[in-house]
Automatic annotation (TrEMBL):
Signal peptide: none annotated. Gene3D superfamilies: Ribonuclease Z/Hydroxyacylglutathione hydrolase-like. CDD domains: YmaE-like_MBL-fold. This is Glyoxylase, beta-lactamase superfamily II. SMART domains: Lactamase_B. Residues 99-256 form the Metallo-beta-lactamase domain.
Length: 281
């Protein structure tokens, strides 16, 4: 059950349409919480920043369950949202990807989308004004959403690992290697089988786009992986994640779960602490 009834119109609330994907909680963890198996407001927005985050929840929620007070006007420029230099969260999360986050970044003069949002005319215009879209990089089969529509609109090439390729039959390029390598200028692909057999991560300018294989837990303030949502093999996923100790990155940008930016040495310490914890379980 969600926080409030659908007819509440005098304050911010989450309607019964919420299916508990967790997207708003991982985008604005200080404002949204889980309550009774659904997302809810921890409190009413109390600052300009919190009000913007609430409005982002309206656009981000794939169930249109985040509701604003009646008569309140939505500000502009909410998405794409800059998370780090050269990294934007696209918003407009899709029900078909269970509310996964997607991103836009730049590398070697290329404009890149990582995983797919739902189709949005606003995003289409923003991407066009940014110069278009060269490549769409899919971390795995679950977070495809409307990537195919964006690829068709901008003539973008689309990449996915061969073991997940049947989840996106429109792809133009299939990753076949199970070893980390530079697949495009400035783009390093790291195969991380486990969550799905064809899961990969993309390391771009010290930003690690981790799909559903690794995320940040805001409550524990630690890296986290979803054992209960591992669809292929958990021991394989842990072995795959051990590959990351040989990489240098300062940001983790997840499909499901939280994202975080630290410095590279701190990130490595967090990674090793996470691996030690899950191995001990």
């Amino acid at each position: 059950m969600a926080e409030d009834k659908d007819d509440v119109d005098d304050h911010w609330h989450v309607s019964a349409a919420c299916f508990n994907c967790g997207a708003v909680r991982t985008a604005a963890p200080n404002l949204f919480i889980e309550r009774n198996g659904a997302s809810a407001f921890a409190h009413q927005p109390a600052s300009e920043q919190e009000t913007e985050d609430a409005w982002r929840g309206v656009l981000l929620c794939p169930a249109a369950a985040v509701r604003a007070p009646k008569g309140l006007k939505m500000p502009t420029g909410l998405f794409p949202q800059a998370l780090a230099p050269g990294v934007w969260r696209l918003g407009y999360n899709a029900r078909s990807s269970y509310g996964a986050h997607s991103y836009f970044t730049l590398a070697g003069g290329l404009r890149l989308m990582i995983d797919g949002p739902r189709w949005s005319g606003h995003l289409e215009r923003w991407i066009a004004e940014a110069g278009g879209l060269d490549h769409i990089l899919l971390t795995h089969r679950d977070d495809v959403a409307d990537a195919g529509l964006y690829a068709k609109r901008f003539g973008a090439r689309v990449w996915i690992h061969a073991n997940d390729a049947d989840g996106a039959p429109f792809v133009t390029d299939v990753i076949t290697s199970d070893l980390a390598h530079e697949m495009l200028p400035g783009v390093r692909v790291i195969p991380v089988a486990g969550h799905t057999q064809g899961s990969v991560m993309f390391l771009i300018n010290h930003a690690l786009f981790s799909g559903d294989s690794l995320s940040w837990d805001f409550e524990k303030r630690a890296l986290h992986a979803f054992r209960d949502f591992c669809w292929y093999d958990w021991p394989t996923q842990l072995r795959s994640l051990e590959r990351l100790v040989h990489e240098s990155f300062s940001g983790v940008f997840a499909g499901h779960g939280g994202s975080v930016v630290l410095d590279a040495p701190t990130m490595q310490r967090e990674l090793r602490a996470f691996l030690d914890t899950v191995k001990a379980d």
